[in-house]
Amino acid sequence: MNPVLAELHEKARAVLDPVHYDFFAGGAGDEVVLAENEAAFRRLALLPRVLRGEENGPEFPVLISPTAFHKLAHPDGELATARAAGTVLVSSMASTVPIADVVAAATGPVWFQLYLQPDPEVTEELIRRAERAGCAALVVTVDSPVFGRHRRDLAHGFHDLPAGLAAENMRDLPGTPGLRRIEMAPFTWADIDRVRDLTSLPVWLKGVLHPDDAVLAVEHGVAGIFVSNHGGRQLDVVPAALDALPAVVDAVGGRIPVVLDGGVRSGADIALALALGASAAGIGRPVLWGLAADGEAGVRKVLDALRDEFEHVLALCGGQLSRDMVVVRC
Ligand SMILES: Cc1cc2nc3c(=O)[nH]c(=O)nc-3n(C[C@H](O)[C@H](O)[C@H](O)COP(=O)(O)O)c2cc1C
Ligand SMILES: CCCCC(=O)C(=O)O
């Protein structure tokens, strides 16, 4: 793990209310997948190429994956994250700052993460809010037909935000004055088609693991996919996100970009994801640790540390990353 990230994690653990720390840190079930997401990177190694001179590698290929409730981490919440981002920020529908304010504060493109809602008018209004705010894409999370069961939250009895904090995008939606709860429901590809018909924004899917679903995503005109197991917070029997990546990349065959998130904690992890065919890596918890430890400056430290380390790894790899360079450790 990058030492800056490790230090910020320790600081976050020390300053956060333990209930909120566990909400951020925890996973579903026995937390097997939570641990595997990081362990999968340790099982792989990179064979660097030599004598390549100064090849130009990819730009810093990291984006901020959507995480809920940033004001639980820091009073500035998503505003601090947005100010620090400087790269694509996928803003959670469950943000504690309204999406328009997130976009206004942002130093890079903002994409809106959406959980489709059972009432199509509510979904449409959320999409319109994202459009009006100036979001550059929609990211529909498809790995959550039901909520994951997070044992740490259940043990603490944590199921509501403290007084004064709310999922601000859920205010004054059609049919409900005031706050509306975010609902999970089992949707279909027809619902994705409807979203595409409703908006001219690129529509990404987040939470694809099966290669056949990746092919369906291409066929349904999706702009890109996130190979993700929701940071081990949904089904605790799936593979590590990294282990699911190559088959999805092969199925997609370069037709759309594939982002990998889950367990990315260092420049080497980013390099491994790219070598296995990801266009970019998403980071979830490290951003929360930076935010909790040091607000906007902490998020910036996380991104700067990863950028610096990734560039160093890339230089040591001869400026290029490809699948033939990845081997399994003995
Ligand atoms: C506290 C927390 C809240 C999250 N909230 C959301 C969310 O609102 N929407 C979503 O699509 N994914 C959510 N995720 C999943 C992340 O987008 C991402 O897939 C995951 O955190 C990546 O793994 P990492 O934390 O190991 O980097 C959340 C993850 C965490 C840890
Ligand atoms: C209603 C908020 C959902 C947040 C989420 O996706 C998670 O905690 O993993």
UniProtKB/TrEMBL annotation:
Residues 1-330 form the FMN hydroxy acid dehydrogenase domain. CDD domains: alpha_hydroxyacid_oxid_FMN (cd02809). Its cofactor is FMN. One of its GO terms (molecular function) is oxidoreductase activity. Keywords: Flavoprotein, FMN, Oxidoreductase. InterPro entries: Aldolase_TIM (IPR013785), Alpha-hydoxy_acid_DH_FMN (IPR012133), FMN-dep_DH (IPR000262), FMN_HAD (IPR037396), FMN_hydac_DH_AS (IPR008259). Coiled coil: none annotated. Its EC number is 1.-.-.-. SUPFAM superfamilies: FMN-linked oxidoreductases. Signal peptide: none annotated. Belongs to the FMN-dependent alpha-hydroxy acid dehydrogenase family. This is Alpha-hydroxy acid oxidase.
